[in-house]
Amino acid sequence: MPELPEVEGLAQFLRERASEHAVTAVSIGAISALKTFDPSPDALVGATVVDVSRHGKWLDLMVATSTGEPLHLIWHLSRAGWLRWSEKLTTTPVRPGKSPIALRVRLDDDSGFDLTEAGTRKRLAVHVVRDPEDVRQIATLGVEPLSEEFTPQRLAELLAARNQQVKGLLRDQGTIAGIGNAYSDEILLEARMSPFAMTKSFDEEKTATLYAAIRDVLTGAVAVAAGRPAAELKDGKRRSMRVHGRTGELCPGWDGTPCGDTVHEVSFADSSLQYCPTCQTGGKPLADRRMSRLLR
């Protein structure tokens, strides 16, 4: 699933290529992906793209209609969705149910993009709204971790709000927006902390360490994603991971010095986390048991 750094990279990519272009066509390939009906996608046709931004893991393409009314095409790529950009879109019509294309947007120079989704579990979500806050999942997002509002004090308040495992807190979009399974693994390696550490055990020093790890990991990942074409962002993310998705490989160490241990895994119902026992849990492997409450 694309997380904050990749979604920010996609926003930058689209902003550079789509801004000031008019939308000439919107085609729906998967009606199940469209979560709103008023305004309709056709309301975007003739409007001019004025900005592309990000809300957590959500992308927001803002257009100005001929009447000056702003509209927002907002989407969440979920686990198997992606954005496929083309400098010259094919003229072959989108055939609902016959391809992985959920939505196609064509611009006035015949460039544009497809939102695609692989697999059978369809979770890609597309909204056309007048205000991003009309999307409930955006209205309830937590603090942006790279914003000025996210301070060590704010993190301390979030940690103290209720006692839960730190892995779950980092992934909770209503608490901190944009961090998912992959970057929470990377953050906890950087912080040298167990994913099962309880949040109310955090003192000022541990909170400062976690805060620094969040900012450093995400800032570095955003820098890696910046300027990359959409087609390269997935591979760039995979290559940058030190523990996530690297079960059984040698741990490169939280500071870049290999620790000699291998990356371990804990599996859940439909996901898993990776960590290094030497770097994060005092050399003790974590119990590999299903704990679905971490997947909120």
Automatic annotation (TrEMBL):
Pfam families: Fapy_DNA_glyco, H2TH
Domain Formamidopyrimidine-DNA glycosylase catalytic, chain residue ranges per copy: 2-124
All copies of domain FPG-type, residue ranges: 242-281
GO molecular function annotations of the record: 8-oxo-7,8-dihydroguanine DNA N-glycosylase activity; damaged DNA binding; DNA-(apurinic or apyrimidinic site) endonuclease activity; lyase activity; zinc ion binding
Lineage top rank: taxon: Bacteria
Alphabetical UniProt keywords: DNA damage, DNA repair, DNA-binding, Glycosidase, Hydrolase, Lyase, Metal-binding, Multifunctional enzyme, Zinc, Zinc-finger
GO biological process terms on file: base-excision repair
Family matches, as InterPro entries: FPG_cat, FPG_N, H2TH_FPG, Ribosomal_uS13-like_H2TH, Znf_DNA_glyclase/AP_lyase
Cited CDD domains: BaFpgNei_N_1
Catalytic activity reported: Hydrolysis of DNA containing ring-opened 7-methylguanine residues, releasing 2,6-diamino-4-hydroxy-5-(N-methyl)formamidopyrimidine
Family (UniProt): Belongs to the FPG family.
Protein name: Fpg/Nei family DNA glycosylase
Species of origin: Cellulomonas rhizosphaerae
Lineage: Bacteria, Bacillati, Actinomycetota, Actinomycetes, Micrococcales
